[in-house]
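Reviewers asked in the last cycle whether our approach scales beyond single polypeptides. To address this, we selected a multi-component target totalling 229 residues and predicted its structure end to end. The input consisted of the following lines:
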Amino acid sequence: QVQLQESGPGLVKPSETLSVTCTVSGGSITNYYWNWIRQSAGKGLEWIGRFHTSGTTTFNPSLKSRVTVSLDTSKNQFSLKLSSVTAADTAVYYCAKYGSGTYPYYYYGMDVWGQGTTVTVSS
Amino acid sequence: DIQLTQSPSSLSASVGDRVTITCRASQGISRYLAWYQQKPGKAPKLLIYATSTLQSGVPSRFSGSESGAEFTLTISSLQPEDFATYYCQQLNSSPITFGQGTRLEI
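The resulting structure, written as structure tokens, was:
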């Protein structure tokens, strides 16, 4: 059973870059679609983007210019970087996996989530 | 972006009640709609995907359906562990969006 664990800095200063890592255990990081989602009191659940280990990526247009994702298959980890952060980026950041089967990935919903990591943007 | 509007925003109910939560999409999303349950301090948990398919391990008292652009989550007989916040999510087109949530409380 795949499990996900996010890790992050906790506190980031305005204008700096936020970096969060998701570690995958119980399965391989390859051949799945992975997502980043965040949740704040003001905006509820917000999808940040998804990527596939083949290199395919799709980001939320509202964040696309500030988002970078990277992959470390040797550590079974993937990471999110969000640049030029403001207080509006304060949130709990989750990684999540799409379900899989015979249908396209978007058929299945997000069946595995990490526990989330809280990131606060403040000076 | 596709807007998902959930109703009601909050709901008071009792153990044993039948409860219905509605999610209306601003555009067509085929059947690519999922429902999640979230408890305080926890990540969302997938209950239903593709409108009406129950995720493995989810009790059968949860069900999903669709009528036009309106999607429904029904809990047939509320159990104490069901008191939580519920979200719908559309996966038909990017960006993926969520409803604003329905808080189910005693």
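Chain A touches chain B at residues 35, 44-47, 50, 58, 60-62, 94, 96, 99, 103, 106-111, 113-116 (CB under 8 Å). We regard this as preliminary and will revisit it once experimental data from Aim 1 are available.
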